[in-house]
Design goal:
505 residues; mainly beta; Lipocalin; eight-stranded antiparallel beta barrel; disordered N terminus
């Protein structure tokens, strides 16, 4: 069978897969902006993450090691019995309408580094075969992201693998495809970075001539953050810039800049950092985005819910819910892998660093970059939604009280649970009081029914709270609740009428 004969079923399969993805995205509540602006933006797909990644949700053991099999990865050819698949990348590296496959794998039961293997199509045998493999710097399977990007601006995609090593450091290993078709030596390593902080590729806008394929673009720079070994403050860091040296064909360390961190009592800092469960509980809250100028950006919110293992991204009135898969400790916080509840191949890696006791620095990357305007950049600083007004202390998130109301007896427990008992039903869930723009708010998150995933706003109820007969919520003899929505315009009333709660004890 020649390559042209293979092309027809490949095209049919691709169209079917695109239709399935469209249906899944539509059903998950994500807005699909099919317009002229999107169509023109789609022409840029060659520049940014134009890869097909097969990345299913994997169950992990306590160390973050994938425990699942390889059936979901659609391998072109099986690996060895002792080789465990971590990630799969399908891409047409030679522009001949036939995809090659790159597989990230590791020896089963081993704790060593993750390797990459290359599987091209062999016309003589009519099958795929492995012709090359090499180790990378990453070692923790659940933190791995495998994708392609024209890192050097020469129109040739590089293979990039990011992840964490066994010491909890972030790593980035990049390979550039050789100029001539050589299946036995298809790539050369151009970057190998390991730091105890985060790593980010500084993607800059490239010229129209580059996007039209008639000129080269500038290589992207890579920025890494590491501990400032010369400082006693744990949050002081250094920013290290890596630039591509064409003479050596490798990314080399360049400018180093000191970045002072917040002055936090070091004993308290050590209590929060270094323990995943403690840090998860610390970020268990609603966070709003802060612009680079320090102003409040009410168009983006993040909600971390470690109890239900969910992360909610809310921006431009679009809510996206991701399942919280795995947490890995970093020097400055936590590295989280997650996937969309409706489209499990949409994975997000979230690098969270502590800026202060009230603020976080967050960087979000995705395995699959669909050109449908799915999300803006989520990178930046975030502060607790209850701390918008510095001179207005936030309420306690929990209380211990019971109230009578038109919807039944409402019982708030001090551990954050609540229940509503009426004549014909019992509703249980989690709750939290917080403050936005100096207004008291209440969030109710009812328990799921069975294994039903959260998919709409009814799973997250927000009320504006008016306490009566007391200076604060805990002392109030009555509460008035008005259903609202937190959106781009701030607090928006939903015109559902007040629910009056009268304290019974």
């Amino acid at each position: 069978m020649n390559r042209k004969q293979i092309l027809v079923p490949v095209v049919i399969f691709t169209l079917c897969a695109a239709g399935i993805a469209f249906f899944a995205l539509s059903s998950s509540g994500v807005k699909l902006p099919f317009n002229a602006e999107w169509m023109s933006g789609a022409k840029k797909s060659r520049e940014r993450y134009s890869t097909k990644v097969v990345a299913p949700s994997l169950e992990t053991d306590g160390n973050g090691d994938a425990a699942g099999g390889t059936g979901e990865y659609a391998l072109k050819t099986p690996l060895g019995d002792e080789e465990q698949v971590v990630g799969v990348l399908n891409f047409d590296f030679y522009n001949d309408s036939v995809e090659e496959q790159v597989v990230a794998f590791r020896k089963r039961g081993a704790s060593g580094r993750i390797s990459l293997a290359y599987f091209p199509y062999d016309e003589k045998t009519g099958a795929y075969r492995q012709t090359w493999n090499t180790p990378t710097a990453a070692a923790v399977p659940s933190t791995v992201s495998l994708y392609t990007l024209d890192l050097l601006g020469n129109g040739t995609d590089c293979v990039i693998l990011t992840g964490m090593d066994s010491d909890g450091k972030h790593t980035l290993t990049a390979f550039h495809k050789t100029e001539k078709e050589n299946v036995n030596s298809p790539f050369v390593k151009i970057a190998d970075i390991q730091v105890d902080g985060s790593i980010k590729i500084q993607e800059a806008e490239r010229s129209l001539a580059y996007r039209q394929g008639i000129a080269k673009g500038q290589p992207f720079k890579i920025t890494a953050y590491a501990q400032d070994s010369g400082s006693d403050n744990l949050l002081d860091r250094v920013e290290i810039e890596y630039a591509y040296n064409p003479a050596r064909g490798f990314y080399e360390q360049g400018k180093i800049t000191r970045v002072p961190g917040s002055q936090i009592e070091q004993r308290r800092l050590r209590e929060i950092l270094g323990q995943p469960k403690v840090f998860e509980e610390f970020i268990n809250d609603l966070w709003y985005h802060v612009s680079p100028t320090g102003t409040i950006d009410r168009s983006q919110y993040l909600y971390f819910d470690p109890l239900n293992r969910e992360i909610i991204f809310f921006g431009e009135e679009t809510q996206q819910i991701f399942t919280w898969q795995y947490s890995a400790v970093t020097r400055y916080g936590l590295y989280i892998t997650s996937h969309n509840i409706a489209v499990t191949t949409l994975r997000r890696m979230i690098d969270i660093e502590l800026e202060s006791l009230d603020s976080l620095r967050i960087r979000v990357s995705e395995d699959v970059k669909l050109k449908i305007g799915l999300s803006a950049s989520w990178d930046g600083s975030y502060r607790r939604a209850g701390r918008v007004q510095e001179n207005a202390p936030p309420p306690s998130p929990h209380t211990d009280a019971s109230y009578d109301s038109p919807i039944g007896r409402v019982r708030f427990f001090p551990n954050g649970n609540y229940e509503i008992i009426s004549s014909d039903s019992l509703v249980k869930g989690r709750y939290a009081f917080f403050r936005v723009n100096d207004r008291d708010m209440l969030e109710l998150r009812p328990e799921r029914n069975g294994n039903r995933p959260r998919q709409n706003s009814e799973d997250r109820l927000i009320y504006r709270v008016a306490p009566h007969g007391g200076a604060d919520i805990s002392a109030a003899q009555a509460l008035s609740l008005l259903r609202v929505r937190l959106g781009v315009s701030g607090i928006q009333e939903l015109q559902e009428g007040n629910i009056n709660l009268t304290k019974v004890r």
